[in-house]
Give the backbone structure.
Amino acid sequence: MDWLYMLMPISGVYIFWPGLIILGLGVGIIGGFFGLGGAWMVTPGLNILGFPMAFAIGTDVAQMAGKSLISTMRHGKFGNVDYALGLVMLVGTVIGVEVGAQMVMWLERIGSVDKVVRWLYVVLLVLLAWLVFHDIAVRRRKEREAKAQNRELGKEATGLEWGAKLQAIRIPPVIHFKHANITCSAWLPIIVSFFTGWLAGILGIGGGLIRMPALVYLVGCPTHLAVGTDLFEVAISGLYGTASYAYKGRVELLAALVMLTGAAVGAQIGVVATKYVKGYGIRFVFGLAVLGCLMSVVLKLLQAELPAWGWLLGPTATVEVLGFVTAISVYITIKMIQGAKAELAAKKSQAAGN
């Protein structure tokens, strides 16, 4: 079975190359659907497949940049990108990415990068899962209350309303983003983007793992616009992050190209699927994806803490992350096909009526 493993020339490790393709295709679908670079799955996924953590981060940033550019162009055609908001957020993103990348180099020098990054992932994923499902629970409670009062809850109504409260803090300069219909202090998206940029640099993510929820819950951006605008930011921060990590010698370009082959196809499927699944449908599936990723990271942490069980925990972590990426990708693809069929049937019915 040696032919299933490929030598990575820069890092010097042998990698299960079908795993790279599955990871690239699946994360392309998931990334295009959620508006994320997908690195929150790919970085731990690459580490589980055998890459040292610093190489996993740098390689993931590289493949993420190319895939996100493809997804951004597709979302732009659907009108899902607020470019003005994305450009304002670049200020914080670039600074945050470099701060995070420098911290990774420092952690690598003291030999703590793997453990620190994994625990940061666990904390972040737990908080995100709570945020998403708490928001859904609050929204459903509001729906029940509205039904009891014989009224219908508006489609734009949200569970958590932090965005509206933060928009009310008008520290100059105040900007109106026409496409997203948001008026807020320019400091709000800049601060959000700095924090997500920092995470992009230290965790090897595009920042989209928390930028998309942050755009929805903190900035108050509609979900479908948050998806496209976030991908625009992921693409820009990914290009900068790739240059930064390549300069530091931590990018395995061969692995990035293998993954990008699958990701380019997957991204098209994920983006089109957002046409048929809106708002809280996207948020619910996002929450499930976060839980799946959390399980794989915890298994890898347990492997480090319980070396006697490494023979079981290591392969289980690999199967879990690849299996979960595949399951979510299949679900999104099915939703896209069902939506496309319903749309074609409606057009045929309308044409017959005319």
